[in-house]
Amino acid sequence: SQQGEEDPQALSIQEGENATMNCSYKTSINNLQWYRQNSGRGLVHLILIRSNEREKHSGRLRVTLDTSKKSSSLLITASRAADTASYFCATDSPGTYKYIFGTGTRLKVLA
Amino acid sequence: DAGITQSPRHKVTETGTPVTLRCHQTENHRYMYWYRQDPGHGLRLIHYSYGVKDTDKGEVSDGYSVSRSKTEDFLLTLESATSSQTSVYFCAINQGSMNTEAFFGQGTRLTVV
Questions:
Q1: Residue A94: is the preceding peptide bond cis (ω within 30°)?
Q2: What is residue A1's predicted lDDT score, i.e. its pLDDT?
Q3: A71-90 burial string, b = 16+ CB within 10 Å, else e?
Q4: pLDDT tens per residue, range A20-47
Q5: Is A47 on the interface with B (CB under 8 A)?
Q6: Is there a cis peptide before residue B18, judged by omega within 30 degrees of 0?
Q7: Which of B60, B101, B104 best tests the A interface by mutation, with the highest count of A CBs <10 A?
Q8: Given a cut of 80, is residue B49 above it in pLDDT?
Q9: Which residue ranges in chain A fall short of pLDDT 50?
Q10: How far is A102 from chain B (nearest CA, A)?
Q11: In Å, how far is A30's CA from the nearest CA of chain B?
Q12: What are the CA-CA distances from residue A41 to residues A22, A55, A85, B70 (Å)?
């Protein structure tokens, strides 16, 4: 399977704390993207990091990418109850626009 | 939300019957995808299309076929539904240029009994 993996599978934190989730993938990539899914809904794009970038920020989100280790991390700072959702990473391979998703991290933020 | 609509949103069907799910977009995006989502597996790519009548297999294509006769429509067909195809199916679209995001539909919950 080409599918990537995220860890942890589930994460429960208190409001105000930071949440970190990791993604590992298997092939070379053009870019890596993170998506969020609220229960019963479609996925929503959060942030994209290119293969030649090492870190990117967007609001309370910070993404890092280590292509030598084929891994990425998503940090959500000062989490809120509304951040409760599942988070997925997705990668595409050079020469294709075929997006392969990881298995996801379920984040629960307790108020 | 991006202009992407899946139909039906829910369907219950019997084992052995054919089922077609429709994805319709109004964004004129080149790429369209069908994924299935199951607990413990995340999203897995079934088939994708990179243009009218241009399709390719994904990770879990067995038992599924697709067609794209118009830019805006991408159909997923289960020729003879099985219980293992009970899942939530998501359609996604993408412009097909470097470093662009995918937009997802709201999903179709299919139950095969």
A1: no
A2: 52
A3: bbbbebeebeeebbbbbbbb
A4: 999 999 888 889 999 999 988 889 999 9
A5: no
A6: no
A7: B101
A8: yes
A9: none
A10: 6
A11: 8
A12: 22, 28, 10, 26
E strand residue ranges, A1-111: 5-7, 10-14, 19-24, 31-37, 43-50, 55-58, 61-66, 71-76, 85-92, 99-101, 105-110
Q: Is A93 on the interface with B (CB under 8 A)?
A: no
Average pLDDT of chain A is 92
Q: Which residue has the tokens 């809904």?
A: A41
pLDDT of residue B104: 94
A42 inside 8 A of chain B by CB: yes
Q: For an interface test with A, which of B25, B35, B43 has the most A Cβ atoms less than 10 Å from its Cβ?
A: B43
Residue type, B74: F
| Nearest residue in B to A38, CA atom | B106
